[in-house]
Amino acid sequence: YGGDEFLVMLIETDGQTEAVAARIQEAVKRRNDTNGSFPFPITLSIGMAHWDPKEQESIEQVLGRADRRMYIAKEARQGPR
């Protein structure tokens, strides 16, 4: 999507986006626990947003919501400065 950001679009998740994000985070944690290639852990900050075609919201607005949520997650992980 840009820089070190990736975009994953999940169709027909039936409200399970949080569960998918948790599975992704757990897989990265397991990889960190078993991978000696990096001297530091790989971390993710995930921002999610749901787009409903019946709503009057553009794709750009939905992506903006997800982006803001990703930065909120990143701040929460890093703690106050």
Task: Tell me what you see in this structure.
By secondary structure, this protein is mainly α. The chain has helices spanning 17-34, 59-78. It is elongated, with a radius of gyration of 15 Å. The model has no long low-confidence stretch (mean pLDDT 85).
**Poorly predicted spans:** none
Cα gyration radius (Å): 15 Å
The strand count comes to 0
Relative helix content = 40-55%
Which features does this protein show?
single chain, 81 residues, mainly alpha, 47% helix, 0% strand
Q: Would you summarize the structure shown here?
A:
The chain has helices spanning 17-34, 59-78. It is an all-alpha fold and 81 residues long.
Layout of SSEs?
Blueprint (H helix, E strand, L loop, with lengths): L16 H18 L24 H20 L3
